[in-house]
Specification:
- The protein folds into 2 domains: 119 residues, Enolase-like, N-terminal domain (Enolase-like, domain 1); 237 residues, Alpha-Beta Barrel (TIM Barrel).
- The two termini are 24 Å apart.
- Helix 1 crosses helix 3.
- It contains 13 helices and 13 strands.
- The protein has 370 residues and is of the alpha/beta class.
- The strands form 4 sheets. Strands 7-8-9-10-11-12 form a 6-stranded parallel β-sheet, covered by helices on one side. A 3-stranded antiparallel β-sheet has the order 1-4-5. The chain has a two-stranded antiparallel sheet with strand order 2-3.
Length: 370
């Protein structure tokens, strides 16, 4: 199945003011995505998603020019060979590490989609997994910087829907973050509470917040610092018992190698649209499994990457939570919206999900499961 074309479709749209939320890195004002289509001489097409890096045109251009030249003419089933070729001639030799990892992730996803269509198997089955439930947490983005009472009110329908875990956005002030975490714990008791600072904390902030997190039994503190700030992560590990989480801004197994061996970050969150695609995150998950570390994939854009992540979780033995994005503005890229009367946003917000439901809720899956 020789590849005859590779095409990226970058898109961006503004989010209305009443739908914007604040994170540790600022206020969300727009949504972007980069969809990737790979076509074979047999007429089989595959779709993938590359993370946009808040610059979708740049990622799309890299795919449509440089990476396309490496891929066209190769066998679409040779996912390892194609990954190696891009690594040799671009990622490992000509820089643009993060951008290249994101761009090749979408290509790699599309190649796996082609393989699934060729043999009639869903992705989880291609990867050696089974159609089993995958736990999901609620929130992640909608549970933002607001008064504790408002935060609790927003969480109530999610918990009533059956969620057993909530993820809160922190990285505001330490005092305000503690108030919000405390309000959620008091209202919902034993529910799992996860937190994400979006690199908004300093070492001093983590030193102040960690005792409260330990007392409130917080499940993890995600990305208190930028991904490359290894020294700060090493310092923060000693401030308390709450595990540190990161990985969405680490690219390829070569960056995860240090993260795993350092032992400071014990919740790993590679993104299948950022970290090098399915082929590479398989390697990352295997490395993590040797250290008994769990994989909780990051996913924040369209239903395509959500579906890929769910299938992937159903194929590994150290999989954790799926990361749905609830109450998110509807994606404008309607070409990839699901059929059967449900939006990708709704489908992604199930309290737990499975590869079968993911396949039904997005056209990105290789085939409906059997």
């Amino acid at each position: 199945m020789k590849i005859v074309d590779v095409k990226a479709y970058p898109t961006s749209f503004r989010v209305p003011k009443d739908r914007q939320v604040s994170l540790g890195i600022g206020t969300m004002t727009k949504r972007d995505c980069v969809m990737v289509k790979v076509t074979t001489e047999d007429g089989i097409t595959g779709w993938g998603e590359s993370h946009h890096a808040r610059s979708p045109g740049s990622i799309g251009h890299l795919i449509n020019t440089t990476l396309k030249g490496f891929v066209v003419g190769m066998d679409a089933t040779d996912t390892t060979g194609i990954w190696t070729r891009i690594y040799k001639f671009q990622l490992g030799s000509h820089g643009m590490d993060a951008a290249t990892a994101m761009a090749m992730s979408g290509i790699d996803q599309a190649l796996w989609d082609i393989k699934g269509k060729a043999v009639g198997w869903p992705l989880y089955k291609l990867l050696g997994g089974s159609n089993r439930p995958v736990p999901a947490y609620a929130g992640g983005i909608s549970l933002g910087y607001q008064a504790p009472d408002s935060l609790v009110a927003e969480a109530v329908p999610m918990v009533e829907a059956g969620y057993k875990a909530l993820k809160l956005r922190i990285g505001d002030t330490v005092a305000a973050d503690i108030q919000r975490m405390t309000a959620i714990r008091r209202r919902f008791g034993d529910i799992a509470i996860l937190t994400d600072a979006n690199t908004g904390y300093s070492v001093a902030d983590v030193r102040r917040v960690m005792p409260a997190m330990d007392e409130l039994d917080i499940g993890w503190l995600e990305e208190p610092f930028p991904a490359h700030d290894h020294r700060s992560y090493a310092m923060a590990k000693g401030f308390g018992r709450t595990p540190l989480a990161a990985g969405e801004n680490h690219y390829t197994r070569f960056e995860f190698h240090r993260v795993i061996e350092d032992g400071n970050i014990t919740i790993l969150q590679p993104d299948l649209s950022k970290s090098g695609g399915i082929t590479e995150v398989q390697r990352i998950a295997a490395a993590a499994s040797m250290w008994k570390l769990p994989i909780h994939p990051h996913s924040s854009m369209t239903g395509l990457n959500h579906a890929v992540s769910i299938h992937f979780l159903a194929s590994i033995d150290n999989g954790g939570y799926s990361r749905p994005t609830c109450r998110w503005p509807t994606n404008s890229a309607t070409r990839w919206a699901p059929s059967r009367g449900r939006s990708a946003r709704t489908a992604a917000c199930a309290r737990s999900t499975s590869p079968a439901s993911a396949s039904r809720s997005t056209r990105s899956s290789s085939r409906p499961t059997r």
